[in-house]
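Hi R.,

Here's the chain you asked about this morning:
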Amino acid sequence: MPSMVIRSFAYDPASRSLDVDFVSGRRYRYADVPEDVAQAFRSAFAKGRFFNTHIRDNFAVRELELESDDPAEEWGAEWA
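And here is the predicted structure, written out as tokens:
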């Protein structure tokens, strides 16, 4: 089922980072997300519900700038 809040997401297993793009235009990177959590998120029927229960408030997060194409710049800020 398409989410009304989450536009898209991408997981990088090498860095264990999960990038989530919201329909609001905001973009966040969640750190140290286990691959099984990312796979369960991908498979979840209700993405927003899964995100709120298993990801939001459970992993360090920082907002990403949409204009930045350099991942090194994105990682420069501290994790929340």
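One quick note: Residues 6-67 form one domain.

Cheers,
M.
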